[in-house]
Amino acid sequence: MTSIEGNRGEPRPRPPFPAIKGLFGKPTVLNNVETYANIAQIILKGSAWYSSMGTETSKGTKVFALGGKITNVGLVEIPMGTTLREIIEEIGGGIPNGKKFKAAQTGGPSGGCIPAEHIDTPIDYDSLLAIGSMMGSGGMIILDEDSCMVDIAKFYLEFTVDESCGKCTPCRVGTRRLLQYLEKITQGKGEDGDIEKIEELSQHMQKSSLCALGQTAPNPILSTLKFFKQEYIDHIYHHKCTAGVCKALLKYEIMPEKCKGCTLCARNCPANAITGTVRNPHVIDTSKCIKCGVCMSNCKFGAIRTV
Question: Label partner for 106 (CA 20 to 30 A): which of 80, 148, 181, 301?
Answer without folding.
Answer: 181
